[in-house]
Amino acid sequence: MARRWAATLADTKGVTLPPEELEPLLLEIAHDAVDHAGPGHDGALHRFTALYAASPMGIALADPGGEIVEANLALGQLLGCSPDKLRGRHLTDLGSTDHDVSRLKAGLEQVRGGRERYQERMLLDHTEDGQLWTDVTLARLPGDRPGSVYPVLMVSDANELHLLQERLLHQNVHDPLTGLPNASSFTTKLEAALGAGARDDIALIYLDVDGFKVVNDGLGAGVGDQVLRGVAGKLSAVFTGHHDGFVARLSGDGFAVLLRGKLTAAEVVELVERALEDLNEPIYLGGHGIGVSASAGIVVRAAVEGGAAELLRAAEIALHRAKEAGKAQWMLFDPELDARDRGRYQLGAVIAGALENGEFSLVYQPTVRLADPGSLAAVNAGLRWNHPEKGELDSDEFYPLAQTTGMTVPLGRWLLAESLAATARWRARFGDAAPDVCVRLPTRLAIDPDLVLLVKEQLDKHELPADALRLCTDRHSVLDPRGEVLDSFAVLSELGTQLVLTISGSADLELIPQHRLPVHHVVLSGPVIDALDTDSPPEPALRHLTQLVTRARELKLRVGAEGVRTHEQAARLRQLGVLAARGPFVTDSATGDEVDELIARHPGG
Predict the structure, then answer these.
(1) Which of 231, 186, 226 has the alpha carbon at shortest distance from 210?
(2) Burial of residue 321, with CB atoms counted within 10 A of its CB: 0-12 exposed, 13-18 middle, 19 or more buried
(3) Distances from the Cα of 69 to the Cαs of 84, 124, 145, in angstroms?
(4) Could you tell me the CA-to-CA distances from 576 to 375, 500, 528, 536, 543 in Å, in that order?
(5) What distance in Å separates the CA atoms of residue 165 and residue 171, rounded to the nearest whole number?
(6) Strand, coil or helix: what is 242?
(7) 533 pLDDT tier (thresholds 50, 70, 90)
(8) Which residues contact 27 (CB under 8 A, 6 or more apart)?
(9) Which fold has domain 38-163?
(10) What class does CATH assign to 174-333?
(11) Average pLDDT in the chain
């Protein structure tokens, strides 16, 4: 069409057309353009109108000022009103909160300023349901004048999706059983509290339900879950609202509390004591009044003093000390005590390497016959650690640490093997004059199911008769429920090994007939011996000791004593009927080189 009219206007045969002739010609051009453009324009308009009306997305067309001119049915349904009621309202009026209104205003400004599209998730007002989460898009449509812009608002329902995301987020940072924040959420909160610029005091409290396994196993996991919910509720009631209190469940029956602000240790302890007292109040479930106790570890310090890892470690240590002290109480973290413990723990951590590197040696204490102190009845073997930095360490300095690190059994095995090797050497040198060796069994080795096999292997290896070995134990090992101590002792007795029980009172002695222990010797120890270490021993102590010796004789046991300090004590014990003793009145200890001289001077008989 353009080429045809261009040719027509060009073909004027060199004549300039006057206005009255050009005007009809231009009108003819315009009509021709309308005739060609009209059908296409109308089709596009019809298609846009149909799409606008049928769209499942809510759409509002606005004038350049942002006032709604048209709204489709989908938008009306989404907002709970007819499209007619939306006409004349400003787009920003649809926002539910001041924050949403501000974001709509900002979006309009950006679209007017040339931005093609503005998208946000926000709350819009629903006529009946209140607030509704929606995904909003603001775009620009060209106006009928150059540079003019008509805003268009497009809205889709995001309420269910948003609520689902919120639920998933909540589940990700909350414990599903108690509804409290979980360990991950607690760590995030703690790190934020200790972040750059923190100036508050911080209190971290670890709480652990004492004996929860009894509740869980005795009444069932369902009851246990309800108890944990009750604990969570009580802790929240005490701590929430105080110093920005934040309570979380870490795992199992463990909980944590974070407090921030101007704090003193006394204030925190007062809250903890209130919580522990509330936990003691019974929770009634299924006819059972269930009361629980808890132990608590407390750390109070300035936020700038160290990081999260150090604070968490301090709380764990304080909780551990509270449980060691008897449970159902709190313990405040003590930095000085911690510094001393760190040294001990470092010592315990290297026991395995020290054993492998040959840093342990045997140390002996002779037991002599009180009727003839020049005659050895036995030699008691123990361990000494020749530490490269700390020097010589006695067993009481490292055995408790070995118990914690699981090294008790390896140390006990090494002690038994080396003691029997030494006994074999004495027998080869001194013959029948060589004394028996007595080895005190740590509890963990006494309950070991392989004890009998271990003893027999070492006796066979060194070609020793079983009666050359005395194994000493105490009431704690005999009554320990974790192993088959009684069965092991019965088998060892049948092999010929001599069994020794350390006692400090009648209750210990009566274990022998009660459990039919195949014991040959008892050794008096502790306060019953210490009471004689005076010029005039108390009459009740002498009477008690006399009763023990008399009862031991009735049971046909040989009676010895340990920890005897003076010759006067030894003489009193002999008068009372004690046959043998060891302690400083003979010698504190002897090394491997010295023990041969002791045997030579004090041969057995």
Answers:
(1) 231
(2) buried
(3) 10, 19, 18
(4) 20, 20, 13, 15, 10
(5) 10
(6) coil
(7) confident
(8) none
(9) Beta-Lactamase (3.30.450)
(10) alpha beta
(11) 83
